[in-house]
Amino acid sequence: MANVLGFIKDSYTEMTQKVTWPTWSELQSSAIVVLVASIIIALVIFAMDKASSGVLELFYGIAS
After folding, report:
1. What is the pLDDT of residue 1?
2. Which of 6, 22, 37, 56 could crosslink 26 through cysteines, CB 3.0-4.6 Å?
3. Which residues contact 54 (CB under 8 A, 6 or more apart)?
């Protein structure tokens, strides 16, 4: 049990004194980067889905 309490105390000390937390503006900038990257990836996946759907429709149209 002493090991668990020591771990909790050490974790608290590390989180409050040793970790460098981002500023509010850094956090906002990172959030914007993640948002833009997510939108770009979603658009790429959408384009790939539409392209593969068109190719498959063409293939099945020819095959039938």
Report:
1. 79
2. 22
3. none
Instruction: State how far the Cα of 55 lies from the Cα of 58, in Å rounded to an integer.
Output: 5
8 A C-beta contact, residue 22 and residue 30: yes
Amino acid at 40: I
Rounded Cα distance between 10 and 40, Å, is 41
Instruction: Enumerate the domain spans of the chain.
Output: 22-64
Tokens of 43: 């658009």
CA–CA dist 27, 16 (Å, integer): 18
DSSP H helices, the chain, are 2-13, 24-63
